């Protein structure tokens, strides 16, 4: 069963049709890339998947059961986590505190309420060092890290607190080549760990480096829905 299945989803804002009959499936261990110009409907689509807004029409299933989320908490409780472009990190707070920020509203939060500060520190050290954050940086304000490292902290946080489907809203948009590479490697690692990733991007090259499936939205419609094998590149 696909973890997330959208069928014929429609959404309008007044007389603007933001999504017009969109269907897609996302399974565990698969990276689905969503591409499209400004105004194509990408934000609207991820807002629906993450429970921020309801669709006007169509059906949304998670692991085979119909859902109708009335808040992002309900989506999070099913392991659908979103890392937005603005990251929701607090720049002046140490990296490790940012790692735990918001964990009380996620599924994996229970055990962590009982942890003391040194234990949280140790957990953050272990998890953050896995993704190449220097241990000397863990106590620094996260605002001192690069954009790529900050993205990795936000992604690691979502995964650690139980994400099964991870929605990434343009995670490489503000990054240079090297930092983008760090984030793309991390996306590949999430995929290898069995997480289903929805990767919103403006950058077809970044999408191709990690994607299993490629969806192009155009004015709310599906302009393309193809697997990696179905795409041909010049030799
Ligand atoms: P993208 O993320 O691909 O740029 P959006 O989902 O933000 O696309 O927007 C799709 C269309 O819906 C655009 O025409 C946009 O102007 C419109 N739109 C998005 N959000 C709203 C809103 N809250 N109110 C009115 N129109 C909106
Ligand atoms: P993006 O390409 O990342 O969606 P946008 O600038 O298109 O960036 O949209 C930023 C935010 O504003 C999104 O949350 C989108 O839904 C909302 N938005 C887009 N168009 C409109 C609009 N016409 N009216 C109100 N909100 C809008």
Q: Percent helix among the residues?
A: 25-40%
How many angstroms separate the termini?
35 Å
The ligands found in this model are: adenosine-5'-diphosphate
- Topology, number of strands: 10
Nearest-integer average pLDDT:
88
Evaluate the radius of gyration: 18 Å
Identify the quaternary structure here: single chain
The strand order across the widest sheet is: 6-7-8-3-9-10
The largest pleated sheet is described as:
6 strands, mixed
Secondary structure class reads: alpha/beta
User: Helix and strand succession?
Assistant: EEEHEEHEHHHHEHEHEE
Low-pLDDT windows of residues: 105-109
User: Tally the helices: what do you get?
Assistant: 8
**What portion of the residues fall into strands of 2 or more residues?**
25-35%
| Outline | globular
Describe it.
This protein is of the alpha/beta class. Helices cover 32% and strands 26% of the residues. The protein is built from eight helices and ten strands. The strands form two sheets. It has a six-stranded mixed sheet with strand order 6-7-8-3-9-10, with helices on both faces. A four-stranded antiparallel sheet has the order 2-1-4-5, with helices on one face. The longest helix is centred in the C-terminal third of the chain and has 16 residues, at 177-192. The radius of gyration is 18 Å and the shape is globular. Mean pLDDT is 88; it is low at 105-109. It binds adenosine-5'-diphosphate (ADP) (2 copies).
